[in-house]
Structure formats: C-alpha cells, structure tokens
C-alpha cells in the first residue's frame, strides 16, 4: 500500500467510524522465532476489533531472518494501515519489518539499516544468504513506494550509488550519504531517512504520534505477550536452548550410571522435552523430528531399564536425539550459515554435557544431597548379598575329568558337571582330579596324584 492509498484509507476510516481503535504491537529486543506468533495474534486481534491503525513500536538490533520474514508477511497481509514507529533503532531484521509497514516515523537520533546477514560470531553470511536478504529488503521497500536500491544497499556493501533524486526533487550525492559509497552499508539516521523519503516525520514518543494522527491515547490497545508466549520465547532463546540441551544430555548420562529410571533420567527427559516442545511450537521443528526424538528417547530408556550396558540401542537412541535436535535448529528455510550455527550450538551442548558429567559425576554422587535424591543401598555380605556361586564347598573334593583340561575343561563331582581349569598342567579325560581352590567362581583343579597348593 503506497502513501496515497494509506492517507485515503485513513481519512475514510476517521470520517465513517464512531469508534477508532489503535493497536500498538511492541517489537523490542531480539527478534526470535517466538515473536512472529505474538505479532500475528496482535494483527488478528486488531482485525477482529476492526481497528483503524496498527503501530509497531520498534527498538531492536535485529535477530533471525526467518522470524523477521514471517512478521513481514503478516504485516503485508493485513488490510489495516500499518505504521512503524522506530523508537531509537531498527537494525538488520528490524529494518525489514519497518519497511513492510505503510509508513515510518522515527524519534530524533534514531537509525534504520545495516541489514546484512551475519552468523552468531558476527561474520558475514554466504552470498546465497546475502542475495536472499537483499531481495527481501528491496521488494518489501518497493511494495510500499520506497527505493529498492537503497533498501538493497542496507544489505550489500558491494553496491554503490553516485546520486539519488528524492521525491521532492532534491539530489543527494555520495558525499551526503556515506552508505552510497562502495564497501559501506547504508544505515540511515532520522535526518537522512527524512531526506530520502524512508521516514514521514519525527516524534519523540509514541503518544505524540498518536495525537498527531488524530487519535486519543484512551483509544489505544497495546498487545502484550502472554505468559505462555514469553515462556516459549525464553526456552528458544539462543542462550537458553543450548543449556536445555546440555542439561538434558547430562541427565541421561547420569541415568546410565544409576540403577533403574531415577531422577537424572526423568530430569533429562523433561529438559529435552522442554527444548524440543518449545521449538515445535514456534515452527522450528516438525512432526518427523518429534517422532525421531520420541524413538530416540525410547531406545535410551530401553537401554537403561532392560538391556545391560550401553550398546546398540543406546547409541542408536542417542544418534536419533542428536539428529532430530540438529535439524530442528535449522528452521524452516535453512541456509549454509544456519547449518554452521546448528553445528556450533549442538557441539557446545554435547561437549558441555560430557565435560560436566565427567567433572561433576564423582563429586555429586558422593554428596549427601545426591544420596537423598537417589537412594543407594550397598549389597553387603553380612546382609546376605554375595556374588559367589557356592563352589567353596567343593574345595578338597575329588572327581573325574570328563574332558581334557588344557587348561580349561569339564569335571564330574558328586555326579554334577562343572567347568574347571587346571593349574597349568595338561589333564587327560577320565583322570582323577581334586579341587584345590575357587578363583573368581572358577574351580581350580589338579590331578589327584600330583596335587599342588
């Protein structure tokens, strides 16, 4: 919707509406995958209430490109006039969201731009990612009557512009706007944005803007995140998500060292469920990854409760868990950099869990607090526990070798067949033997005519 259509729609709404409602949707802090659902809910609420205007109160350094793209699609999809109020800054993904609105208003000293894609370490993304973001910015600006060239130059510093003619007929040169030069990204201040036509006017606060538009502050409705939305955003935070993974893996590692299914295993499953469930809610995971995670956890539990040791089932289950988590971290439209970020996050979580397990296992398991959570009952001999098979009663008894002993074989004592081992001598079949001692539940025998001690 261009500026003329926006003004006409706005004036008609004011004339024919007895109750004008302005919906305010804040976009502050990091743009994560939970935010598109808050914005979508706010827009749907505005549409259901027949609101006359939606104002996005923006102050962000950016965030995930896929999240910003979803927000942009929701904004462009509504018929209600939209305004971006840049309350200090709309950087990176925040610039894309601002350009998707019908009009932009800024506070003095605010900035918009610097939208090139970077990874978690701040390194520039691949050409494929830059190309995608460049066209997203350009097409979004063009849809709202703004310069696609300048929007593209917010993403790609290889572009340059010798001069730009504004809608008022003024000519701006590369000496006027530093970002016009090659190897410079465009970041527009409020003053420059007004010159180029990206911003409509300057206001120091949103209340002044609302009054300027002819509304009363009592007619505004601010959309706030619900507790569940805040919880999901917290759980999918790039700092919190690897911690949930680490705690989940750590719980499973502790469970392998504990008999039965106890507190560590349950805690590990809960942490992984929180991690995976929250990412599923924001669209970072699909049903296939949930099924793989379920079978992975099931195999690990099977390994812990039924199959002794840590073998094929446990390794396969762990592999399925790692695979499902890795692909969940990629998002809906993964780029090459998304793969690198997923490798990094999953590696940190896995290495952190193993390191913490090695470091803390002995300390925690020997503490009184751990013994209160997981009861440890030593199997003492005086309580009737023993690993002996009861062969001690045969010491000194005589018998017959039923096979050759070289040195292992079988013997017959009191008409019972046992596995035995000689002291090193070769004993022929049907030789008379005597049991000398029991060594780790193994009968040690010698020929009766040549017994040793």
Write a brief structural summary.
The protein has three domains: 223 residues, 2-enoyl-CoA Hydratase, Chain A, domain 1 (Alpha-Beta Complex), CATH 3.90.226; 146 residues; 60 residues, OB fold (Dihydrolipoamide Acetyltransferase, E2P) (Beta Barrel), CATH 2.40.50.140.
Question: Would you spell out the secondary-structure blueprint of this structure?
Answer:
Elements: H1 3-16, E1 22-28, H2 35-48, E2 53-60, H3 65-77, E3 82-91, H4 93-99, E4 103-106, E5 111-113, H5 127-143, H6 148-153, E6 163-165, E7 171-173, E8 187-189, H7 190-196, E9 201-202, H8 206-212, E10 220-222, H9 227-235, H10 240-256, H11 263-281, H12 287-305, H13 312-329, H14 336-365, H15 368-373, E11 398-401, E12 408-413, E13 416-422, E14 432-439, E15 442-447
Parallel strand pairs: 1-2, 1-10, 2-3, 3-4, 3-5, 4-9, 13-15
Antiparallel strand pairs: 5-8, 6-7, 11-12, 11-14, 12-13, 14-15
Helix pairs in contact: 2-3, 3-4, 9-11, 10-11, 10-14, 11-12, 12-13, 13-14
């Amino acid at each position: 919707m261009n500026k003329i259509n926006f003004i006409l729609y706005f004036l008609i709404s004011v004339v024919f509406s007895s109750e004008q409602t302005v919906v305010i949707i804040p976009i502050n802090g990091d743009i994560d995958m939970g935010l598109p659902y808050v914005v979508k809910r706010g827009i749907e609420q505005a549409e259901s209430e027949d609101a006359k205007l939606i104002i996005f109160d923006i102050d962000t350094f950016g965030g995930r490109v896929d999240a910003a793209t979803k927000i942009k699609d929701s904004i462009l999809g509504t018929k209600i006039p939209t305004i971006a109020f840049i309350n200090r800054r709309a950087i990176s993904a925040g610039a894309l969201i601002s350009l998707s609105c019908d009009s932009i208003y800024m506070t003095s000293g605010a900035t918009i731009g610097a939208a090139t894609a970077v990874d978690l370490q701040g390194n520039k993304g691949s050409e494929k990612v830059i190309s995608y973001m460049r066209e997203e910015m350009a097409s979004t600006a063009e849809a709202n009557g703004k310069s696609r060239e300048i929007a593209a130059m917010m993403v790609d510093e290889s572009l340059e512009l010798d001069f730009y003619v504004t809608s008022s007929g003024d000519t701006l040169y590369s000496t006027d706007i530093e970002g016009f030069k090659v190897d410079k990204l465009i970041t527009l201040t409020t003053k420059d944005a007004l010159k180029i036509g990206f911003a409509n006017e300057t206001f120091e606060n949103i209340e002044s803007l609302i009054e300027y538009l002819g509304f009363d502050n009592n007619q505004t409705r601010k959309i706030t995140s619900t507790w569940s939305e805040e919880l999901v955003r917290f759980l999918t935070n790039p700092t919190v998500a690897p911690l949930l993974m680490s705690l989940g893996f750590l719980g499973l590692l502790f469970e392998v060292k504990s008999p039965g299914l106890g507190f560590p295993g349950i805690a590990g499953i809960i942490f992984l469920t929180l991690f995976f469930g929250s990412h599923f809610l924001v669209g970072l995971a699909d049903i296939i990854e949930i099924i793989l995670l379920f079978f992975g956890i099931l195999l690990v539990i099977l390994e812990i409760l039924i199959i002794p040791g840590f073998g094929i089932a446990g390794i396969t289950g762990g592999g399925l868990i790692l695979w499902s988590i890795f692909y969940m971290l990629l998002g809906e439209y993964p780029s090459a950099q998304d793969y690198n970020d997923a490798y990094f996050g999953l590696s940190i979580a896995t290495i952190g869990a193993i390191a913490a397990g090695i470091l803390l296992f002995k300390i925690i398991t020997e503490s009184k607090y751990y013994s209160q959570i997981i009861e440890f009952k030593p199997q003492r001999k005086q309580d009737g526990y023993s690993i002996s098979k009861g062969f001690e009663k045969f010491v000194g008894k005589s018998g017959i070798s039923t096979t050759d002993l070289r040195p292992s074989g079988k013997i017959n004592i009191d008409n019972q067949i046992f596995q035995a081992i000689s002291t090193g001598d070769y004993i022929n079949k049907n030789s008379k033997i005597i049991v000398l001692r029991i060594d780790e539940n193994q009968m040690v025998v010698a020929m009766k005519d040549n017994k040793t001690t």
